[in-house]
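Quick entry between incubations.
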Amino acid sequence: MGRRRSEKKIAGVVTLLVLSSAFVFRRDPFVAHVLVQASLLALISLAWNILGGGCGQISFGHAAFFGTGAYVSAILTTQYHLNPWLGIAGACVSVVFLSLLVGVPSFRLKGAYFALLILAYAHVLKLVALNLEITKGDEGIFSIPSFGRYSFGGMEVNFFTSKGANLFLILLFLIAGLWTGIWMRGSQTGIAMEAVREDEVTAEAMGIDTLRYKLFALGVSAFFTALGGAFYVHYIHFLTPDSAYSGYWSLMPIVAALFGGIRTVTGPVVGAFTLVCLDEFLIKELLPRGDKLVYGLLFVVTILFFPRGILGTWVERQGHGRKKEG
Amino acid sequence: MKKFTLFFVSFVFLLVLPHKGFGETVKIGVQYPLTGKLAKHGQGCLEGAQIAFDEFNSRGGKLKAKMIVVDDESSPQKGVAAVEKLIAREGVIGINGGYGSHIIGPSSETAAQYGVAYLSVGGVSSKLTARGLKNYYRVNNIPGYAKAQLGLIRDVFSGEKKVAIISNSKVATLDIANNIKKMLESEKIPVVFFEKFAAKTTNFDPLLLKVKESGANILIVEGYFPDYVATIRSAKTLGVKLDAYIGAWGVGSPEFIKELGPLSNYIYGTSLWEKGTAPKEARDEEKTFVDLFVKKFGKDPSYLSMLGYIGAKLMLEAAERAFERGKLNREGLLEELRKTDRVTPIGRVAFDEKGDPKYFTCLIIQIRGNDFTVVYPEDRKNADAVYPAVPWM
Amino acid sequence: MPEAILSLSGVVAGYGEVVVLRGVSLSAEEGKITVVLGSNGSGKTTLMRTVMGVLPPIEGEITFRGESVRGLKTHQIARKGIALVPEGRRLWGDMTVRENLEMGYLLRREGDSLEERLEEVLEIFPHLRRLLRKTARTLSGGEQQMVAIGRALMGDPDMVLLDEPSLGLAPMVVAEVFRVIERMREAGKTVLLVEQNAKKAIEISDYVWVLENGEIRFSGPPEEAEENEKVRRAYLGL
Amino acid sequence: MSFSLLANSIASGLLMGANYALFAVGLSLVFGVLKIINLAHGELLLAGAYVGYFAIRGMGVPLPLALLFSGLSVGIVGYLYYFVVRRIRDDELNTLILTYGVGVILTNLFLLLFTADERIINIPWLTEGVWLGPVQVNRGNLVSGLVSLLIIGGLTFFLARTETGKMIRASSMDREAAALVGVDVERIDRFAFVLGCALAGFAGPLFGIVSHINPVGGEAVTINAFILTVLAGLGSIPGLLLAGIILGLGEAIIVVFASTMFQGIFALALFVAVLFLRPEGIFGRRE
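Done. Structure below.
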């Protein structure tokens, strides 16, 4: 139980940190944009980790949920002229539905096979998007509306021009995801999921309906991933099959989660912020051409020396320290 | 205390440092994909842009230019990051670059929010100029490519013409394919085969066999380097009897001859520019560029580098005019860029109200031995087309 | 008491933070059948795996012929002349019976050729002769157990460790397995047998150890074991 | 539709399939023995292709020698790479990230060293067409296809008949049981890993002959190799050839009757169907 409480504390600190950084940098569009990218990655990484770290079901194809969420919202807002908020809602609902639909047969597979099956879905969906009329094929969808412009009293919030406004929005989503994750881990559901992760056969023998918990984790994971995808289109305003189903959305969330530590809920968030900020603020500054090389080296070294991730290793060290004291 | 003083002094010194000297320095951003899928194109353009900046700074004018390069990693969101960084961080007043319409789209829109000019050389989607942005310009667009291909078939080739068109399903190539098909049909030239193929197709034999069965004697392939390599190989293997093989962009790059060797002989392609094809008025400029390029990089420039050079140069010229008017800022640069109208090595460049190039047409080149010859249009050609001829016959 | 060929002293071992063996000391005499009894979860399999170096001991010493084997890799220990017939047989399912046996021959140190060793094993398990070309996974449980024991014997080891060889087998087959174990002793091999089938095991044994919760609770000759109240109640059902 | 269209398509599909198998064999071997999905497989193959490119085009080395040279040099890289992978090989997910990271490093190293230029290994006599009975095929594809048969046949023989081969198989099925009969499983792992890398390097120049080389092309090779490995069944080397042929043939026939646009869907549909219906692969054995 101690670990759970310390997890809450860490999540609280992280929440405060990202919120305060958003306040500090909201008027610097470049930093704000980098923070948006980091938050977006953090959200998807967190969502991936609810399924991966929480339930032990590794997916290599979260781009399937990201891209579909992005497309649904883009189509609803450009072709049916719905409000972006409704577009986002539509995206989340339909992607959760999609995830459950593919989840029931897919969960028969285990380990790497499950992981790759999801990857195959992402590729199939990309091919579908390339060949459909409604997605405009390879040309993609242009001029997707932003979240609009609002006035609260004297304060004007314009999502089209203000990176800061978008930053606060994605942070809101991220914090919602973070605390959903924390809540899940502490609840009965989370304990059942952990049992599934540790030993599925035993969990089943204990009378846990493993499929139900896996589907639940998948649904929640798909929900937040679609939320990220839908946010992305209303932020970037353009969508092509290449960008929607890009390997980036499948791979980087895993990298970020591992980098931060998959045994913790907050790990992926820490990992995403560290990776994106390191890349944009440090590596790119020092090495404008070879930055990806350093990036590759960086995560090879991290995996080798901190196999439990930064936060994971830190939490572990804390635990050991306490044990020794007591 | 001493340490603090030292620190303070050096800090102040650093702050003052950039402002020393008499002339003024204009900061221009250059955003290209230097890594990722489009790295090849981005790197080619960037090399050209470097020449433009070198040339500008060594010409002895009062205005100096600082080129700030950002890699967009072939990704739309990194493109936005690049633009934000260039404008908000580096304070550039104009941005040059971008390759790929899906990256240029969001990037140019971000630049529009600041009223910063965005001049691209690698975004051809018709939707880019349909957005009504006031800051977006480009030097090339799709119809120019198809017009040139049509001209070659209609005006240069003789005898019976049956055309097969195959196209990469990427939007830009498919766009040219659809354009040329319509144009050919309206000229009553029969298109006997038309099919798009998936990007990354590895085995072209079956498709080429279908082309063979169609009885076409002219094959147009709208694609990219790997597509040409694979289709030429397949056509040779299968002995497809053709009178001409016409590619789109990519044929006119030095690596095409270098890599394919004799298999590239007699292939036609569209090109924006080849060494020695500049219109009369721009011959000197072309020569200067080529000389500088060879000196700096030890190889011949490709059309990509020429594009990058022209893009950067037009931007710098606009900056210089704005400087002379005493209005070296975002609006000033934008106003001057809009007024651009001059003959460049790739032809006359001027923009319409949407930002599209008004006079853009392509050249048609044919590879002959180790050289590109320009065979169309009439006024810029330097050799007659060899027709019928394909490398495998 | 003659020199023990294998001896463990104060061995602590386990998986990660879970300690299974809590300071086990036991020994096996050369040429004898030594039996270790224990219920499920008492640490029998862990004991075997620790001896073979699959699981490195956290503390304690293990010696074979007076030489420490602690810290050696599994294949190095095996090459000293110890063969383990693991729990659940662990045959290579996609290989034929012949290939499975041939792999056992890797352990030979000198002497007989492959064919000679194979002949000897087939003489012990004549039933396997017909099955040589069959894929291991298609065999019945009893046949698989014979292949597993045969594989261990192919290398002509000095000592054979057997981890619950009778588990899940029909009574007829169990009887044969025990006959084979006795034959090993006749051939001069040392046997360390871990069993739940206590009655049979005690019958053929020369010395008995009882392992409970990772600790040795009893040791003595078989007659003493049969009379010991705790052993009788826990393992003989009396 | 004529007979020659169909026959020629089938022939080129078969050859393409054999080539696919060749480009996948290294990944399949490593996956089968070490249970590691080497996500840098495609980049290693490209490394071999670059070595072959400069050897053949720059120094005029004959093809067979270039193949050996590429195999050897990538094998050496693999040897060093193994010592990094070994440290964390027990954690499936971490090895995935590590191998992906190595792929990223290699890709960007290629970009820095060789620029983003597209290259092909152009050996004139290999671009000719060859008549095989009623059909005409590309000599480069034919040579590469034959090499593929040779490699896969040789590897199958090696695994089935030699002592080291049997140790590899035993170790891949049950490491612990292999160690118990005296197999130095770590040495076997290292050997299989280095061999897998060397095979990728060996295939590289042939890839450069039948396809094209650019720094970012590795990922597609890896994905294709992976699909094939799954179709074949974990570690089944002969299955790889059959899986490759099914894929190559299917793709060719789809173009004849429909269009290349459906090739990708075909490969993936096959992949998904096999995962659902026979997760052990078409030619794998059911546990």
